[in-house]
Amino acid sequence: MVHCFHLAGFPKGLISCVTGKGSEIGDFLTMHPGVNCISFTGGDTGIAISKKSGMIPLQMELGGKDACIILEDADLDLAAANIAKGGFSYSGQRCTAVKVALVMESVADTLVKKINDKVAKLTVGPPEDDCDITPVVTESSANFIEGLVMDAKKKGATFCQEYKREGNLIWPVLLDNVRPDMRIAWEEPFGPVLPVIRINYVEEGIHHCNASNFGLQGCVFTRDISKAMLISDAMETGTVQINSAPARGPDHFPFQGLKDSGIGSQGITNSINMMTKVKTTVINLPAPSYTMG
What is the domain partition of the chain in residue ranges? Predict the structure, then answer.
């Protein structure tokens, strides 16, 4: 990509690409005196950068535990389609993936079955075969995901599918009857694992969303727009989607996270503003230029 910029005529040195392990080049890049702004996408590394970067503007998108609240009056077919797509596209390796479904108990059985039917149709295999679920990025990531799954199994979660893994490839897993004492209820798997927590009151769902240290996105499924707006106002997230899965959205929309999900706001105008320093020059004329008093 950088080579294409050079071919397009960008002045030499205006854009550069530096590659290497974060442990080798990270501190050099983020603490170099010539750097006066940092935009970073990642997780815990972003928090570490923010502690070292000094007095320069930061723009960070650091992951999330995007909660989906499903009310009793929701269109369950619509909700199931969006939850399956939102939870398992890119094998769940998206900051805006659905990371936890908080569903009213009265419709939970029906919704879980509808989601499960869609999960059963997902294809699993290598990316060159255009499969829906492909290997996660590293073996350490697969090990982390497996740790969350095994913790949920040990504590009594209901497995809608048999857990299966081959190397970095993890088959999609829908976990029902997840409780707040399970790691998967709070930690971001960044893989094809979706927990379902059953709630009796919408306030339970809002509380679980807000109790998270993340606050990137959330979504609400209901036919009542007034309820949707009230819930959206109460959710401590940068964006709330109503009757749709979390998503980046158009590039001119502000895209930001609260709490450990980030600093600042992305989006064309927002990014330009973040990378702009305002300077003021005041000209003091030798004589008053307007009448005083």
Answer: 1-62, 67-242
**Do residues 58 and 256 make contact, with C-beta atoms less than 8 angstroms apart?**
no
pLDDT digits (tens, 9 = 90+) for 243-283: 999 998 888 889 999 999 999 999 999 999 999 999 999 98
Q: What is the per-residue pLDDT for 291?
A: 64
In 3D space, the residue among 123, 125, 130, 103 whose CA is nearest the CA of residue 114 turns out to be 103
Supply the pLDDT for residue 127.
94
Q: Which pTM does this prediction carry?
A: 0.91
Hey, what CATH class is 67-242 in?
alpha beta
Which residue numbers are catalytic? 61
Alpha-carbon gap, residue 218 to 234, rounded angstroms:
11
CA distance 91 to 108: 24
Phi-psi sector, 99: left (phi>0), alpha (psi -120 to 50), beta: alpha
The tokens of 53 are what? Answer: 């970067």
With both helix axes pointing from N to C terminus, report the angle between 225-234 and 202-211 in degrees, rounded to the nearest 10.
30
